[in-house]
Amino acid sequence: MYALPDLPYGYDALSPFLSSDTLHTHHDKHHKTYVEKLNDLAAKAGLAGKPLEDVVREASQKGDRKLFNNAAQAWNHAFFWDSMRPPGGDRPSGDLLRAINESFDDLGALRDAFVDEGVNHFASGWVWIVTGSQGLKVISTHDADDTLVKEGAFPLLVCDLWEHAYYLDYKNDRKAFLERWFDNVANWEFAAAQLAASNGKADGFRYPAPEADGGKGKGERARPAA
Length: 226
Description:
By secondary structure, this protein is α+β, with helices and mostly antiparallel strands. It contains eight helices and five strands.
């Protein structure tokens, strides 16, 4: 069975930018439901026990939208939790800062692009910072869609644009949510590790491997799939 990963920090660790109430609702209810449905659908499709990344790709290729939606949402949420850290962390530096400057001139321009993409994304989805052959880009995906099925888009960070990610704290003010998220809780250390993984220099994020007992576990890093 696929486990619901524990948060990599306490429920109140992102306050005041994301409340404990939001994290409890988002993680313990929304993410948990995706994982529960994933386990049922993956078993019916004969894919239980495979790495979740493979399940997402196979469901997409076969046009199994119900399985894809729940598998991709389970993966996206786990990646989202690691894309955040408690306020006060380090800003981008080293190779990550150089990549930002080469593609966006500076961190401020990346912020503007990220917030603009997220604000103007219609309805539910995700806003990503990705890297590829042309450097860093900001993209958004609709509903459950993710970078696992996007050629040439290796994810560095993601922010959830579904209303359940921010409505308790920000109501309908998605722009304020994105601005405060980028400025205060974006996990640049994680983004730097993902950038290194995209170049084969480090391990990249993978969802925890399925376990027979369905126990919880933290997201892990492993070599990205070829």
